[in-house]
Each structure stands twice: as structure tokens, then as C-alpha cells.
UniProtKB/TrEMBL annotation:
Pfam assignment, any one: Cytidylate_kin
Keywords annotated in UniProt: ATP-binding, Cytoplasm, Kinase, Nucleotide-binding, Transferase
Residues annotated as domain Cytidylate kinase: 3-193
Catalyzed chemical reaction(s): dCMP + ATP = dCDP + ADP; CMP + ATP = CDP + ADP
Coarse class of the protein's main subcellular location: cytoplasm
InterPro entries registered for this protein in UniProt: Cytidylate_kin, Cytidylate_kinase_dom, P-loop_NTPase
UniProt KW Isomerase keyword: no
GO MF term (any one): CMP kinase activity
EC category: transferase
Organism: Microvirga thermotolerans
HAMAP family according to UniProt: Cytidyl_kinase_type1
UniProt-recorded name of the protein: Cytidylate kinase
């Protein structure tokens, strides 16, 4: 069984994905970390993010055993990931790993931007998680503060708006809800309430099928 979760930056996809996976005994993959890890390779080697060939090579030879490195979750890496994720060869190189991950028993939860549309179009349940940009910026601000990164709220909001725009307008795998996705607006839901709402959607969906 596959649960696909897509949505914009800091909408709560990762938190929800992990909670659902723990609850259901499924594996969980935050696919944003793959793009962040590719960006990290380029930045570590001093290669400009505009070098498409180098980005594709980095994606093809990505070591996926270090996705839990804490520095991948920083603000700069999210921005850099959004640049290299627009390159089709980078996306192609990361596809097989994501699809393979989704084939695990008894199930898998994958979250990102194109899980329901491209990576797992046959997912059993597709959720599209949204929240107003101001609320997402507030959450990301608090999250970064907890990590020891004090980035101004206005800077984060501007970054989120820029990233939304880039992710939604790129020609390759743009961020959008799959036709059969159920949208959950978490603007007024904390992580617990979002988890309960998602579980109810999943239960309802599985009862129908
Ligand atoms: O956590 P946050 O939503 O800020 O970012 P993320 O999910 O780690 O993703 C970082 C960037 O990677 C996004 O802005 C997207 O451009 C890209 N990404 C993507 O293109 N496709 C995915 N399946 C996941 C992330
Ligand atoms: O994965 P994504 O970028 O969509 O977001 P996240 O990393 O799951 O969530 C960003 C931050 O917002 C985390 O610190 C969560 O604890 C928090 N959050 C929240 O306050 N309310 C929610 N409904 C979901 C997440």
C-alpha cells in the first residue's frame, strides 16, 4: 500500500508522513531530502547550482545512506534543492529509488511535490497538504529557531513564496494536486489535528475501495 503526500514547503508533509508511517507500521521517505542531498553535493564541491550536467551526475551517484544528516534540513539547502530539482535529468535519476521505496511491504508513505502525479500515480491514497504561506513561514521560522538557525520571519516568507512559485511553474513535474488527491488545508490545524484528519481521510478512502 502506498500513501502519497504532496504539498508546498512547510505545509507539514514530513511531520504528517512520519506520523502516519509510524502509526501504520509503514516505511517513510521524505523525498525532499533526496533533492537537498544532491544540492549538498554540489555546494560541498563548490560547483554552481546552474551546472545541470554536474547536478545530474550528482543525482545519478547519490549515496542515499546519509539522508538523515541534520545539515540537509537547513534553509539554504531547501532553496538550493528547489533550483536543481527543476532539472529533468536530476528528477529522472532519482525516480527509480523512490519507486522502489514505494514497493515495500506492508506499505510506504512518500512525501514531496510530485508523488501522486509522477512517482506513484497508482498510490492507494493521495493527500495534498496546504496551508497559507504566512502560517507555513511561521512554522518554518520556529523549526529553524529550534535548530539554532535564526532567520527573519520576512526572509522565510519571501523564500517560501519564491519556492512555491518556482515549484509550481516549472515545466517538469510542477507542484500540483493529482486529479484524484484529497486536499487538506492545515492552516488552522496543529500537527495532531492534521494527523487525525488525514487518518479519517485514509480510513474513508480505504473503506470505499
Ligand atoms: O521541507 P520543504 O517543503 O521546505 O522542502 P523539501 O520538501 O525538502 O523540498 C525541497 C525542494 O526540493 C522543493 O522546493 C522542491 O523544489 C524539491 N522537491 C521536488 O522537486 N520534488 C519532490 N518530490 C520533493 C522536493
Ligand atoms: O515537510 P514540510 O516541509 O511540508 O513540513 P514539516 O517539516 O513537516 O513541518 C514544518 C514545521 O511545522 C514543523 O516544525 C512541524 O512541527 C510544524 N507543523 C505544524 O506546526 N503544524 C502542522 N499541522 C504541521 C507541521
Amino acid at each position: 500500500m502506498i500513501i502519497a503526500i504532496d504539498g508546498p514547503a512547510a505545509s507539514g508533509k514530513g511531520t504528517l508522513g512520519k506520523r502516519l508511517a509510524d502509526h501504520l507500521g509503514f516505511a517513510h521517505l521524505d523525498t525532499g531530502l533526496l533533492y537537498r542531498a544532491v544540492a549538498a553535493v554540489l555546494l560541498a564541491r563548490g560547483i554552481p547550482l546552474s551546472d545541470r550536467e554536474a547536478a545530474a551526475r550528482a543525482a545519478e551517484s547519490l549515496d542515499v545512506s546519509h539522508l538523515d544528516a541534520p545539515d540537509l534540513r537547513g534553509a539554504a539547502m531547501g532553496e538550493a534543492a528547489s533550483v536543481i530539482s527543476a532539472y529533468q535529468p536530476v528528477r529522472d535519476a532519482l525516480l527509480a529509488f523512490q519507486r522502489q521505496f514505494g514497493r515495500q511491504e506492508p506499505g510506504a508513505v512518500l512525501d514531496g511535490r510530485d508523488i501522486g502525479t509522477v512517482v506513484c500515480p497508482d498510490a492507494d491514497v493521495k493527500l495534498f497538504i496546504t496551508a497559507r504561506p504566512e502560517e507555513r513561514a511561521r512554522r518554518r521560522h520556529l523549526e529553524l529557531l529550534r535548530r539554532g538557525e535564526d532567520v527573519a520571519y520576512e526572509t522565510i516568507l519571501a523564500d517560501i513564496r519564491r519556492r512555491d512559485e518556482r515549484d509550481m511553474t516549472r515545466p517538469t513535474a510542477p507542484l500540483k494536486a493529482a486529479a484524484d488527491a484529497i486536499t487538506l488545508d492545515t492552516t488552522n490545524l496543529d500537527a495532531d489535528a492534521a494527523f487525525r484528519a488525514a487518518l479519517a481521510i485514509i480510513d474513508g478512502k480505504l473503506r470505499k475501495s
